[in-house]
Design goal:
- This protein is mainly alpha-helical.
- It has one domain.
- It is 69% helix and 5% strand.
- It contains 13 helices and six strands.
- The protein has a two-stranded antiparallel ribbon. A two-stranded antiparallel sheet has the order 3-4. It has a two-stranded antiparallel sheet with strand order 5-6.
- A hairpin with a 5-residue loop joins strand 1 and strand 2.
- Helix 3 crosses helix 4, helix 7 runs antiparallel to helix 8 and helix 10 runs antiparallel to helix 11.
- The longest helix has 36 residues.
- The chain is globular and about 65 Å long.
- It starts with a helix and ends in a 6-residue tail after the last helix.
Length: 380
């Protein structure tokens, strides 16, 4: 079995892969839902939009469930603390997600314009709200979360829901929302044609520019806006048993930039986020839609990787008790648990990738209004 410190690092990488996988796979479904009321004019066109993601959305939702399960199993202290501090935010995500299964299943069951329009806006909520809240959550992580541990390692959240909605966190939410909207728009442009595709192209171009501008602004705010990062100043034993209070942490103006100074190659991540988003803009405008979708996937990888690389080894910094900040080294499960999970991932992750690729290959191609009218019995 791999040694404990190596497994801790591997699971940081694997959880990052799961987050990127969720953003890429379920993200384009959510992006399509966000655009549904705007790119689909009339019932037939909206059914086209829904049918581009209808066969796949529930399978892609597994990435979200798997990501949450992996955090619970690999980083139990992070899971417990985050779901306590972000309780109402997480509930808002779940409430929004409730609209998706019901909306997809019930939307076309009744031939009534008010009924269908209501579910269309429900699908919009289910697609637009989660990316916004996830972005706000990341914005708060970069600022530090107001929690602390007592001597029994019981976490106590000292903030409230409204504190989460601060200006920087809302800016991070716009980055996340525009990133997911771009991804959904490139996918929709690839799967549709005619007027729907033209609207999706315009949406992709606008979302890509908004994403780049807000991503750069967020970086400048972190660097020059007086926002402090976190630095561990005591010795670290990566192989030690978890104890988040057994370290010394200070806040520093260059805390989130030290990894970039130490490892300049990390600058490739924000560069990829910006360049890939602009590339998606250009490729979508030229109607190279599959290449644009790949570019938007790379942009997502760059943005999430940028945040992860800046914060490493921190997972959930504490603004009220910096010493209690949760890191890769001191908030993980046991050596045995990480090892068993690692080998399960090695076995099952390739299977998930294979069957997902097969499903997309089988159901590839354009979805058109003519197809919808000729197959009126379809569930969507």
């Amino acid at each position: 079995m791999l040694d404990y410190s190596t497994l801790k690092l591997i699971w940081w990488l694997l959880v990052g892969v799961l987050l990127v996988g969720f953003a890429v796979m379920d993200g384009h479904d959510m992006g399509v839902g966000t655009l549904l009321p705007f790119v689909g004019k009339g019932d037939d066109e909206r059914r086209v939009v829904i049918n581009t993601v209808g066969p796949h959305w529930d399978g892609n939702q597994v990435w979200f469930i798997t990501g949450g399960g992996a955090i619970f199993a690999a980083w139990p202290l992070v899971y417990a603390t985050a779901f306590s501090g972000f309780y109402w935010a997480m509930l808002a995500v779940l409430w929004a997600l409730f609209f998706r299964p019901v909306g997809f299943d019930y939307r076309s069951k009744i031939h009534n314009s008010l009924w269908r329009s209501t579910w269309d806006w429900g699908l919009f909520v289910g697609g637009a709200v989660p990316p916004l809240i996830f972005g706000v959550a990341f914005g708060n992580l970069l600022q530090g979360v107001p929690f602390e541990f007592d001597n029994f390692l019981v976490s106590h959240y000292t903030g409230n829901f409204w504190q989460l909605l601060n200006p920087f966190a809302l800016l991070a939410g716009v980055v996340s929302s525009s990133m997911i909207t771009l991804h959904g728009a490139t996918y929709l442009a690839h799967r549709t044609e005619g007027a729907i595709q033209s609207r999706a192209v315009r949406a992709a171009m606008g979302a890509s520019l908004l994403m780049v501008v807000t991503f750069v602004l967020a970086g400048l705010w972190l660097r020059h806006g007086g926002m402090q990062g976190y630095v561990i100043t005591s010795a670290i034993d990566p192989s030690a048993l978890p104890d988040p209070l057994a370290k010394t942490v200070v806040r520093s103006a260059d805390g989130w930039w030290r990894n970039y100074s130490t490892y300049p190659m990390l600058w490739l991540l924000p560069t990829m986020g910006i360049v890939a988003a602009l590339l998606a803009f250009m490729l979508t405008a030229l109607r190279f839609t599959l290449s644009a979708f790949i570019a938007s996937s790379m942009a997502i990888t760059g943005v999430i990787g940028t945040a992860g690389a800046a914060m490493f080894p921190f997972l959930m910094p504490s603004s009220t008790q910096p010493q209690a900040s949760l890191t890769v080294w001191d908030s993980v499960s046991s050596h045995l648990t990480l090892g068993l999970m690692f080998w399960a991932t090695v076995i099952f992750m390739p299977l998930i990738v294979v069957y997902t690729s097969w499903a997309y290959r089988v159901m590839r191609g354009k979805v058109t209004v003519a197809h919808i009218r000729a197959n009126d019995h379809t569930a969507y």
